[in-house]
Amino acid sequence: MQETITLYFREGPSDKVYQASIQPKDQGFMVHFAYGRRGSTLNTGIKTQAPVEYQIAKEIYDKLINEKMAKGYRPGADAGNILAPSAPKKHTGIQCQLLNAISDVLLEQFLSHPDYWMQEKLDGRRLLIRKQGDIITGINRLGFPAAVPEAIVRSALNYPRDFIMDGEAMGDQFHVFDLLAIGPEDMRQLHYSVRYLRLRDTLDAFDHPHVHLVQSYSASDCAALFIQLKSEGKEGVVFKHQEAPYIPGRPNVGGTQLKYKFYETASFIVAGLNDKRSVSLMLLEHNESCPAGNVTIPPNHDIPNPGDVVECRYLYAFRESGSIYQPVFLGLRDDIQRNECSTAQLKYEPDPV
C-alpha cells in the first residue's frame, strides 16, 4: 500500500515544493519527504527511522500534510498561489498598531480589570487588508504592500463595501481582530468596544470562509480563558482597554493595548552559517553587534542567508553571554527591520533565589 502527494507554495519570490510518501519496506512502511525550490534538486529525508505499521505511518504522513496545508501549501502545480502586491516598495500610508508587553507582576490586574477586554494572540503573519472596490491590498506591519492568499482575497471581495481590517494570516486563513475603516468612515479614533462590535456585525453580513473573527472577552471570562489558552500551548493574549483608539506605531512605554506571551520570542539577525543546518545569531546593542547563540533550522524550512532577519522562540537568555537557551526556529521575518533586532527584546535567566 503506497501513498504520495506533492504540495506547492508560491508567495512573492518563493516558489516551493513539498513531497511526502508512504512506501513499503520489509514487513512495514516508511514515510519519506522531500522539499525545496520548484525545479531544483530537492532535499530528502525520512520521518521513520525503521519500518512501522501502516496505521502509524499514515498518522505521520497525515500530520506532515496537515502542517504544510496550514502554512498555505496546496496540491496541484498551480495551487498555493498568493497574489503578489502590485507596488511592493511603495508605502501605503497605513501603519499598524504595535503593542508593548506586560510582565507577570501586572498580569493579574489586567485579567480582572473591568475596563479591559482580552483576545487570543495568534502566531501568524501580521496583515492588514484594504478593500477598495474590486482591489484587495495586503499591508504588512511596516506599512508596505504584502502578498495575500487568493482564498482570502475571494472571501474579502464578498463584502460589498470598502474596508480596512487588521489581523493575522495563517496559511490561507485570515484572523481579524480590529476594524480601521468601513466604507468612508474612519474608525480609528472610536473606542475599541465600538470597533469590535462593528467588526462583528460586518462579518455577520457576508459569506467569508477564509476570514475569521478573533473573539474578544470581558473580565468575567478572562481568567478561565487565559488558563485554557496556556494549557493548549497557544502564543499568548492581548488586553485592550474598551475605550482605546487605534493608534499607529508603538508607544514608548505602556499603552491602552498590551500583549502577554506564554513563551518568549525575538527577532534576530543571521550572523553566519554553521554545519548541520545551523546558523549563528546576533543582536544589536548601541549599534554594535552582539552574539546571541545558534539555532538549528528544521528540515521544513529553507536555510536563511547571513543578514536575514529570523524569528526564534526561546526559554530565556543568559546574562553573561547573551545567548538564548533552548532556541526554536520559527521562520524568516521580511517585515522586521534590522534595527529592531536589539538586545532590549530579551528576557534573561531568572536570578537565583
From TrEMBL:
GO molecular function, one term: ATP binding
Gene3D superfamilies in the cross-refs: DNA ligase/mRNA capping enzyme, WGR domain
Superkingdom of origin: Bacteria
Keywords per UniProt: DNA damage, DNA repair, DNA replication, Ligase
InterPro entries in UniProt: DNA_ligase_ATP-dep_cent (IPR012310), NAD_dep_DNA_ligaseB (IPR050326), WGR_domain (IPR008893)
UniProt record, GO biological process: DNA recombination; DNA repair; DNA replication
Record keyword DNA damage present: yes
Residue stretches making up the WGR domain: 3-81
CDD domains in UniProt: Adenylation_DNA_ligase_like, WGR_DNA_ligase
Protein name, UniProt field: WGR domain-containing protein
